[in-house]
Amino acid sequence: MGKDQVFRDEIEKVSDFKFGANVASVFDDMVNRSVPFYGEIQRMLAELAADHAREGSFVYDLGCSTGTTMIGMDTLVEKSIRFIGLDDSQEMLDKCKAKFDEIKFERPYELRCTDLSEGVEIHNASVVVLCLTLQFVRPIYREKLVQDICKGLNPGGVLILVEKILAEESDFNRDFINYYYNYKRRNQYSELEISQKREALENVLVPYKLSENISLLRDQGFASCEVFFKWYNFVGLVAVKR
Questions:
Q1: What is the pLDDT of residue 156?
Q2: DSSP string, 117-130
Q3: 59 with 83: CB under 8 angstroms?
Q4: Which of helix, strand or coil describes residue 209?
Q5: Are 85 and 111 in contact (CB under 8 A)?
Q6: Which residues contact 15 (CB under 8 A, 6 or more apart)?
Q7: Is the pTM of this model over 0.90?
Q8: DSSP string covering 141-206, please?
Q9: Model confidence over 15-33: pLDDT tens digits?
Q10: Helix or strand or coil: residue 238?
Q11: Which CATH architecture is the domain 21-240 placed in?
């Protein structure tokens, strides 16, 4: 696993964050050092997926990046169920394929290069995962994306959503962000790295409040929704289609 040093050196003009080759090569280290309890979130995702995946249906991972979530789900989900991974970065999908080949991933699967902002075709799904993905979809397109997901889920199917969020009360936002940057400092990110990545993400990652995410899910047809994980400004939700 390559070490994340994407923002180690000073950049004269920081451009918008992109999931290109330089990020794909170190993404696993980046996300493990940048997302609190990432390993536990992945374990919980696999557990939830295993409980709701149904034989004869599909499990979708939207924004699958390097395949970590699918690899985790593979340990618990019934082996005949096909996984379908979508990402808009071919570099991420290439890294995912290389990881699958390395571990001899035997489950039937597909990888598709897809821009989620253009909507998505979901068919015969019992589980759909959006792990730290919806936050990168421009807000104007999120309603349609969640609508497409709900439409493609079978009755009783679930959407598992993990997101970075804003605090409900703005007074807490500054504190939560500070706690988050302390977390990154503990994981050996420098002040320059933190600052430059924040600038790169400013126009790319647009978080909602927890309540706004729940409203989005309910408004697009999900009958019930529950929080399964929360750490300051990170949350995991599971929503069921009836």
A1: 97
A2: GG-----SEEEEEE
A3: yes
A4: strand
A5: yes
A6: 200
A7: yes
A8: HHHHHHHHHHHHEEEEEEEEEEEEEE-SSHHHHHHHHHHHHHHHHHTT--HHHHHHHHHHHTTT--
A9: 999 999 999 999 999 999 9
A10: strand
A11: 3-Layer(aba) Sandwich (3.40)
How far apart (Å, rounded) are the C-alpha atoms in residues 143 and 138?
A: 10
CB atoms within 10 A of CB 102: 8
* Whole-angstrom distance, CA of residue 132 vs CA of residue 35: 9
The segments of the chain whose pLDDT lies below 50 read none
Q: Say which residues have a Cβ less than 8 Å from residue 99's Cβ, sequence separation at least 6.
A: 66, 67, 71, 105
Instruction: Identify which of 204, 207, 152, 149 has the alpha carbon closest to the alpha carbon of residue 177.
Output: 207
- Compute the 3-state secondary structure of the chain and give helix, strand, coil in percent, each to the nearest 5: 45, 20, 35
Structure token pair of residue 41: 């979130």
Amino acid at 54: R
- CA pair distance 197, 191, nearest whole angstrom: 10
User: If you count them, how many residues does the chain have?
Assistant: 242
By percentage, how much of the chain surpasses pLDDT 70? 100
| The pLDDT value given to residue 182 | 98
- Strands 109-113 and 208-209, how do they pair? unpaired
Secondary structure (3-state) at 41: helix
How far, in Å, CA of 124 to CA of 161, rounded? 19
* Chain centre to alpha carbon of residue 225: 18
Count of CB atoms situated within 10 Å of the CB of 132: 20
- 225: β partners: 239
Return d(Cα 103, Cα 105) in angstroms, integer: 6
Q: What pLDDT is attached to residue 6?
A: 95
